[in-house]
Amino acid sequence: MPDAKKTVALVNGTGRQAASVIRAVTSLGWKVKAQVHSMEGLVAEELEELEGVTLLEGSLLDNPVLIDALFEGAQVAFINTFPNAGDEVKIGKALANAAKKRGIQHYIYSSMPDHSTHNPHWPALPMWASKFTVENYIRQLGLPATFVYAGIYNNNFTSLAYPLFCMDFKDDDTLEWRAPFHPDTKLPWLDAEHDVGPAVLQLFKEGPKKWNGHRVALAFENLTPNQVCVAFGRALARPCRYVFDPNIEIKVPIPAGYREQLAGIEVLFGRFNAPYFPGPEFQYPSKGRGSGETVTAARRSSETIRSKPKKLTSEARELWGGYRGIEEYAREVFPLEEEANGKDWMTAKKVST
Ligand code: NAD
């Protein structure tokens, strides 16, 4: 059974996480049933062309017919909901109920933490806490499930004026990233398009016998903002400076709810220097705050001290060793994405120093 070809149900099929899974599983001849918000756009067109892919177009909110059809004939599922698609908790619960009814054998749910459950001073980030509520619901339902926690996508970076991950090209040809993350606190990184698919495929292959109930950090590198800037600087052959700024400047229109998310990020990471993924399963040895202090103490007092604390990235790297790191991303992919966004810094003559 472990190597049998399966049918995978997915939602938000054109999103970076799900599309990566679809590419990986179809390359092995597995079948896919994926809900998409719209059949228009490059990714939907690409997926439609793949052998064995059925796309179901429509909303997930209050749509039991589509949701039931999605799981019909599928054995496993990868579920990453998208906040703009409507009430994520309602959608998440409806999907889990339907999966249970259809007897899904392995439900991989893309979750995120609710920091307020770890420390009363830490705020819950609204766009993450809803996913954590659904994770708890899935656990209560008793679905055979694994909970993946996606790290920060490498390709969040852009030189467009979006908040939080703007890699700003200065007039003197240097780069600057400003954010409320502490400069020397490690953060988990992921190349979502490149690496979610192969890692999730391996989870499906190893199955719920190994992974039922587990939380897995989908993060292949654990780098501080200063280290990220060193990688970008090396890749793009220009100095890159990280500036800790407790306030996130919002210069462009942003989706509903994102303002509250950003305000929470300022408090959680800027003020409290909280670990990005809290909780014992994500703890790893480190000197920096926000990346292990509470953990080490918790571990010392726990009976699980027997084994060496694992690294945040170890499970993801065991699942998939061919990941794309941020330096490779910055060198190989970032310039192409920038060009697609109408930027020309990659061909423009450098200011001579
Ligand atoms: P994505 O952001 O790559 O794509 C979103 C998709 O939703 C697009 O295909 C778009 O066509 C579609 N869409 C646009 N408007 C829509 C609407 N109104 N209703 C429904 N769909 C619509 O998606 P993704 O990155 O695979 O998943 C997003 C989720 O991942 C979010 O919940 C986010 O919080 C979470 N996440 C992101 C990061 C990160 O670093 N960016 C990290 C961890 C988790």
TrEMBL record:
Keywords: NADP
Database matches in SUPFAM superfamilies: NAD(P)-binding Rossmann-fold domains (SSF51735)
Alphabetical list of Gene3D superfamilies matching this protein: NAD(P)-binding Rossmann-like Domain, UDP-galactose 4-epimerase, domain 1
Name this polypeptide is given: NmrA-like domain-containing protein
Top-level taxon of the source organism: Eukaryota
InterPro entries documented for this protein: NAD(P)-bd_dom_sf, NmrA-like, NmrA-like_oxidored
One of the record's GO cellular component terms: nucleus
Biased composition range(s): Basic and acidic residues: 300-310
Domain NmrA-like residue range list: 5-330
